[in-house]
């Protein structure tokens, strides 16, 4: 679907006509919003509750005040809402340099100040994580030539995480935490050589310090 407002907790986005070639002069916008950001989670039980709080105003960080009409005590492990969007690509094939998919933070599509990546070509991009509870995507093609397009999945994750980058084929990974400051180490099976960074670290902008490495035959 072209031009859509999407809500969590997860879903699929594809270029027009996918897996058939997209049209020339395409212009598509998707805005993804985390589902009900006013809700919060109890980390131990996994249950969502309002915690007796109501939002003051909606921003990238939600300021909360106690609800005076709620008489139940607020659980100590009840945390304020903090959801961001993770975007992971399964297939990607755009006419290099002419057709682009721009990914940005927030809900204002086309705002150059919030652009995270401008994607083109045939290499499958690494996963992208927003810093806000919204993410926008803008797909544009020129007047000639087209390719198969792209397929991506989006998912809500907790803020302060870079998301699971996965494990390379014929490789293995040490580390299973994806929070800010966490580091993952990669190595390949015998007869395969590591291509890329051996270790990557989750940064405060919710992006890994490098792409997930690959393993190729020696």
From TrEMBL:
Residue span, CUB domain: 2-157
Record domain Sushi: where: 160-217
Pfam families in alphabetical order: CUB, Sushi
PANTHER family in alphabetical order: PROTEIN CBR-CLEC-78
Cysteine-cysteine disulfides: 188-215
InterPro entries found in the cross-reference section: CUB_dom (IPR000859), SEZ6_CSMD_C4BPB_Regulators (IPR051277), Sperma_CUB_dom_sf (IPR035914), Sushi/SCR/CCP_sf (IPR035976), Sushi_SCR_CCP_dom (IPR000436)
Annotated keywords: Disulfide bond, Glycoprotein, Repeat, Signal, Sushi
Record keyword Zinc-finger present: no
Superkingdom of origin: Eukaryota
Signal peptide positions on this chain: none
PROSITE patterns registered for this protein in UniProt: CUB, SUSHI
Name listed for the protein in its UniProt record: CUB and Sushi multiple domains 2
């Amino acid at each position: 679907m072209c031009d859509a407002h999407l809500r969590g907790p997860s879903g699929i986005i594809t270029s027009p006509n996918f897996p058939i070639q997209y049209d020339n002069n395409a212009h598509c916008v998707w805005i993804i919003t985390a589902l009900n950001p006013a809700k919060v989670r109890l980390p131990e039980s996994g249950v969502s509750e309002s915690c007796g709080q109501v939002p003051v105003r909606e921003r990238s960080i939600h300021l909360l005040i106690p609800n005076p009409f709620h008489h139940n005590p607020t659980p100590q492990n009840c945390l304020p809402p903090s959801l961001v969007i993770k975007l992971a690509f399964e297939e990607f094939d755009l006419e290099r340099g002419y057709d682009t998919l721009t990914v940005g933070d927030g809900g204002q599509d086309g705002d150059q100040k919030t652009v995270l990546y401008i994607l083109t070509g045939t290499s499958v991009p690494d996963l992208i994580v927003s810093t806000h509870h919204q993410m926008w995507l803008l797909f544009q093609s020129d007047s000639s030539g087209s390719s198969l397009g792209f397929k991506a999945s989006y998912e809500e994750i907790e803020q302060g995480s870079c998301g699971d980058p996965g494990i390379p084929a014929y490789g293995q990974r040490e580390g299973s935490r994806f929070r800010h400051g966490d580091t993952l180490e990669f190595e390949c099976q015998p007869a395969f050589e590591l291509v890329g960074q051996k270790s990557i670290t989750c940064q405060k902008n919710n992006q890994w310090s490098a792409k997930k490495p690959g393993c190729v035959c020696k």
